[in-house]
Amino acid sequence: MTTESATDVDSGSSVERALATALTPRRERTRERLLDAAFAVFADHGIRGASIEAVCEAAGFTRGAFYSNFSSKEELFLALAERAMRRQLASLESVGKEVEPDLIRGGVVDYEAIRTILSVVVTDPGDARQWALMRAELELLAMRDPAIGRPFLAQEERLRAELGAAIRRILDSCGLRFTVEERTAVDLLLSIYESSARAAVAANPTSEDGDAAPDTAVLTELVNLLVTTAD
């Protein structure tokens, strides 16, 4: 098993600061391995059922490595959720740069092209079931415990704002706009997405992961109502 010290380097001297800087890439690799391990462990046992020891064992680290990066399982899950959203945002930004600017043809919006864009932000079907279950569990914990609820809501607020800005940039580049206020549109899109994911899991509780993937057709129908030409 790989070991890593739980003691953070004190930043008092220039030598210590330099050492802390040198360790940053290593800490980042440790953090990523813990996140990868946590996804698998949480998916199998849930947030409450999973132990920190199990996550550390799966990652090949000691508890010291865990606590040098995260203060709790809940903080670890929030970091895992943020990483997933960051990756989706990066994918959205990437596909946005490749979108043809003529999504409007003869005054009609090409919604199939928009559906292609939306499919980028839909969780990988192989992960859909796990994410739906884990997110539902985290939301329940957040509603019961303010210590979890406050950071959860703060993260949601920040990421939804960034998602709205990313979608707006794509719409602007194509001569399109939301028919409602941006945040309202984002909330509606995410609500439908999350509801569709939960319904897919409930309808097929023992099926393979791919069966839990939300249907982008539902999102496309909503886009028909939320997106129009800029003029």
Automatic annotation (TrEMBL):
Top-rank taxon: Bacteria
InterPro entries named among the record's database cross-references: Homeodomain-like_sf, HTH-type_TetR-like_transc_reg, HTH_TetR
Keyword terms of this UniProt record: DNA-binding
Record-annotated DNA-binding residue ranges: 51-70
A GO molecular function held by the record: DNA-binding transcription factor activity
Chain ranges of the HTH tetR-type domain: 28-88
Pfam families noted in UniProt: TetR_N
PANTHER family: HTH-TYPE TRANSCRIPTIONAL REGULATOR RUTR (PTHR30055), TRANSCRIPTIONAL REGULATORY PROTEIN (PTHR30055:SF241)
Organism annotation: Promicromonospora soli
Protein name: HTH tetR-type domain-containing protein
